[in-house]
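Box 3.1 A note on notation
Throughout this textbook, protein chains are presented in two layers. The first layer is the amino acid sequence; the second is a token string describing backbone geometry. Keep the layers aligned when reading.
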Amino acid sequence: MPADPTSPDNADATARYRTVWISDVHLGTSECQAAHLIGFLRSFECDHLFLVGDIIDGWQLRRGFYWHQTHNDVIQKLLRKARKGTRVVYVPGNHDEAARQFIGLAFGDIEIVDEAIHVLADGRRLWVTHGDLYDGVIQCAKWLAYLGDSAYEFTLRLNRRFNSLRAQLGLPYWSLSKYLKHKVKRAVGFITDFEHALAVETRRRGLDGVVCGHIHHAELREIDGILYCNDGDWVESLTALVEHDDGRLEIIDWAAHVRSVAAAKRAKPVAAVPQPAPVNPAALPAPSTARTPLHG
């Protein structure tokens, strides 16, 4: 849906962060929550903004073209932030792997790099990578990754219709894909293996932590002494990773923000329409009985 100019998503910037990481936006798909992303981008200012892969979904665009006006708005907002002084760094992922041929170049003040090292305000060094290069399915059986992507897209469409019915019943959003990920042991094992593989590689590089995306699962925790950060996605989770001025990291749950604002709007009492004051008949002047003289 297009952004509503009266919604809180379009509020002026109120937050100030040192660094922001977002990934897995999947522009070019009908499931991309571009309107909410625009709201988030408008809500803050920052020094560094990392786009950690799968910003544009080239896989889906090859299957069938889809591009909403809000997808243009996201691109324009990112370019505007870069023009106004924010350092914007783009680390391509597997869905936008075509951008890897432009590594080392800059488009509209947006740097394109294969990976990056970011130093937090407290001195910790983080490796920034999309993470697909440490996904065994992507590297060893890409056809299976394409098949899984189609299945995920089908699940999202089914989930959208299911949640439309839930909304009519006054029930909150429920994610079928997340439920399946947590119930299927292989999916849980894949996420765990992915996280540990990145932690091992981070330690091998002599760094303090890693920031990635790819698996659409926001996380901020330590794995064997290595800080593992996943910024989530903008298809279902609507999450981002931010660094405060003191180096503290936090996952922003924008979906929770949207729900809380919507709930506050519903709870706000409607202003009463002013009614005219009651008329006291005794206070009215008595009707005149005098007749108007006739002339003629």
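DSSP finds eight helices and twelve strands in the chain. The chain has one domain: 14-261.
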